[in-house]
Amino acid sequence: MIIDMHTHVWGGQYEAHTRDLLKACELYGISKMYVSGIAAQYPDEQQIGQHNLDVYRFMKEYPELVEGYCYATPRNGNSLDVLKQGIEEYGMSGMKLWIATYCDDPLVYPLVEQCIEYNVPILLHSFHKAVNQLPDETVGTHVANLSRRYPEAKLIMAHLGGNCYHGIKAIRSCSNVWVDISGSLFRRDEIDYTVKQIGADRILFGSDMPGCTYVLNFGQIEEADLTPAEKELIYYINTLKLFDRGFRPALGGNK
Fold first, then answer.
1. What is the CB-side half-sphere exposure of residue 234 using CA atoms within 13 A?
2. What's the CA gap between 97 and 99, in Å, rounded?
3. pTM to 2 decimal places
4. How would you write the pLDDT of the chain (255 residues) with one tens digit per residue?
5. Closest by Cα among 113, 54, 55, 56 to 79
6. Which helix (H) or strand (E) is 80 found in, with range?
């Protein structure tokens, strides 16, 4: 079983992107995917609304295959209402924060607190770059700050933080932070490093499709120094556990 917990339908490309995602599921035997809609760095309320409607439409069309993240932007005044609609009305499984604010900005706190109440994961774009770091773009140290403020939150640091030697070091002691490998940027040795630092039970399989290739991320796991049991953890067991509303992080593990 393989669950791809990091995919997208980019704004204005619903037909093309859903077609590509469905084709990948058929070709590679993906059992379930978690989808968010994104486009501009600082989307307005109307854009956010349309992104979430696109994901909701995809969920309704393929209810056994597609789960959704509610995309929220803390800079918009209606962000809490957007989150509540996504979880309560649309039946989405988590919240997505992209690059409109650092994830530890106080603007984010009400959204995190609401996600804690719902007990749903928060997918945090995180990317440490040598050049062209975007303003308001989260890196691993921001994720660690948020984790320590809210140890009961279920946080996912996407893309191994964009640079695993920066991102994983930052969240290594944060037991309520999971990481995904999505983004098609990593060599297999970075998977090996991450497993040694935090264990296989905090790593999730994601691809960042359709903008990135599924095959490369799959190959990274297949070639990494992992046991069959560790591969199963990464491919689907960890995701099933994390998104289970009955599962909560153990408190007191963050340092």
1. 29
2. 7
3. 0.97
4. 999 999 999 999 999 999 999 999 999 999 999 999 999 999 999 999 999 999 999 999 999 999 999 999 999 999 999 999 999 999 999 999 999 999 999 999 999 999 999 999 999 999 999 899 999 999 999 999 999 999 999 999 999 999 999 999 999 999 999 999 998 676 788 999 999 999 999 999 999 999 898 999 999 999 999 999 999 999 999 999 999 999 999 876 676
5. 113
6. helix 79-84
29 to 33, 43, 215: CA distances (angstroms): 11, 34, 12
Contacts of 237 (CB under 8 A, 6+ apart): none
Two structure tokens written together for 108: 């984010």
Token pair of 42 as six digits = 């600082």
Residue 116 CB burial class (10 angstroms; 0-12, 13-18, ≥19)? middle
Report the distance separating Cα 166 and Cα 179, nearest Å.
13
What does residue 8 show for φ and ψ, rounded to 5 degrees?
-140, 155
Contact 94, 128 (CB under 8 A): no
User: Diameter of the chain by CA atoms?
Assistant: 47
90 neighbors 68 (Cβ within 8 angstroms) = yes
Contact in structure between 11 and 50 (CB atoms under 8 Å): yes
CA dist list (Å): 228 to 58, 125, 205, 234, 253:
32, 28, 15, 10, 27
Q: Which residue type occupies 118?
A: Y
| Closest by Cα among 228, 233, 213, 223 to 188 | 223
Q: How many residues appear in the chain?
A: 255
